[in-house]
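I would like you to sit down with the record closing this message with an eye to the fold:
=====
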Amino acid sequence: MAEAHQAVGFRPSLTSDAGEVELGAPVLQEIYLSGLRSWKRHLSRFWNDFLTGVFPASPLSWLFLFSAIQLASFLQLDPSLGLMEKIKESLPDWGGQHHRLRGVLAAAMFASCLWGALIFTLHVALRLLLSYHGWLLEPHGGMSSPTKTWLALVRIFSGRHPMLFSYQRSLPRQPVPSVQDTVRKYLESVRPVLSDEDFDWTAGLAQEFLKLQASLLQWYLQLKSWWASNYVSDWWEEFVYLRSRNSLMVNSNYYMMDFLYVTPTPVQAARAGNAVHALLLYRHRLDRQEILPTLLMGMRPLCSAQYEKIFNTTRIPGVHRDHIRHLRDSRHVAVFHRGRFFRVGTHSQSRLLSPRALEQQFQRILDDSSPACPHEEHLAALTAAPRDTWAQVRRSLKTQAQEALEAVEGAAFFVSLDSEPAGLTREDPAASLDAYAHALLAGRGHDRWFDKSFSLVVFSNGKLGLSVEHSWADCPISGHMWEFTLATECFQLGYSADGHCKGHPDPSLPQPQRLHWDLPDKIHLSISLALRAAKTLSGNIDCHVFPFSHFGKSFIKRCHLSSDSFIQTALQLAHFRDAQCLALFRLAVDKHQALLKAAMSGQGVDRHLFALYIVSQFLHLQSPFLDQVHSEQWQLATSQIPVQQIHLFDVHNYPDYVSSGGGFGPADDHGYGVSYMFMGDDVITFHISSKKSSTRTDSRRLGQRIQDALLDVATLFPEGQHLKRRGLGEEDSG
């Protein structure tokens, strides 16, 4: 989502000259360090690696194997074909009375070796199976015999009860695509948007690149792919996110919305209590690896590494680059209300506080009438400042207010109790949704701690939302957590008839701890400047959200088309007004599906070109083609927010109890950021953002074009002949 903005804005010299010196380091050293970081991550998860390293077996399977060998020995059978006897002979002779002990030790050692060999065989077999991509080429709704056989073997070798990280050691390495294929696909993708003259010039640069630089750069990427687990992911995190010096607000954060049409309770403290409790229940499941690994199309497991940093994580600013700080545990949340910061404990005697007890603590904060200290109210605007500026100010802040700063940065997550209501209103549905989106994306510029992995925003009328920092994980990870949170706090925890959390308060709990900031005078000016810049950036963002209810996923399925490709192609139609007939539309949808499947199998274009560009910078090798690729400004950045746990929601009986998705900032000063989410089978929610300073963009105008394009496309199909176009105002109010 928001990564589109950072990827478009990437430059190798993002920092000062010192940063460029780092980029000039020998590429072999950087590849070595990438592999070292990869292995360190494995070693830091020793217990997880033990549990997942024996998967799909289990520690109990060793005991079963050992017992079987002992039983065979008792029956005077030798399943080791003499190996146990040789092992016994190599053991020290402790005397006649220990002869049986030597036999047991020999059996245990043989069982361990055999068990390890079996596990290794299972790992290799599963990794080879997961390297198969033929299932992606299957026609919609069909499956060939080879794919059925492959799927059966994957299920057999995957075991019965996989944990979250069970597949990590069995996932194949990220393949490095052929550089010729990548260049060809890139030229195909830009051909429709370039003039003949510009395309010929770009194609000439591409041919020169293939002749002169491509083979050398590709060799280094191949080398890295064998040494590190992924040839591009650490560089993407480093250069697209952590080295970016831009404000995190709008540029590197995105938002997630509450239920669109319903609010389970209007009591702000109660909604916060249930939501925080549900989030911490999710963390508990995460710590115990009880979350099922995500399966692509229900078949192929995806990497689960990003789940590790959901909680207890903060992006720490640096002068040239940021770094991600992750704690193993945190027993409190940081809360912001009316310019004041609080520390609220989440556990009592090692047990998670009940929702009613958490509600009590939040209500105490809401009832606290003490004023904010001078400049404390706007302190969080520093986290929205350029990263170099915030890094320098943070040094002084850490010296003067270390305890308060640690309470915020060391929290499980950040909670903002807003003083204003939000969400859909009957009086002005369009404007209210737009304001809701803007409040989550930018707020007032000083009421979110943008460095935290995510901030839970609770509005005064009980409406919820998330503001998520992007560098630690992609949207599906936070989306998975958010689905669990909404379903749990509403359907499982629930509320009493008067809107409060169920259960009883706990008067014995201490009051929430007010955090005190000793702010030196030299920081005051920095806060004022950061606030001014944050308000300017916030005021420049134009957000528009609308539910499209003419049709949804079920209609698209009846047209025998991919729902995601259908929407993506319609968005192009809305932006460029092309592809006016059914044949061209089907062709465009098929092309999008082919590109999507190529990206899913590691054969995408952008990451490969990005990695080639990074290597060229390390080598100080000029490539006009790669410079051209990374200087382009893409005016339409799109993303679908998937619904991953539909079983948690009863969309047929309670269609309103589905999250309405979220959005992100525009990828270009003169472009749009568009995300969408299928709410059940019959509604699609769109989130559009652009900058008010641009004379070429208007979020609401694009929203109308999207609705028109969807209806234009739908009426091309026999199933959509009954649809009639309606105006935006009527759609929003309906």
In short: Confidence is low (pLDDT under 50) at residues 1-5, 12-24, 725-734.
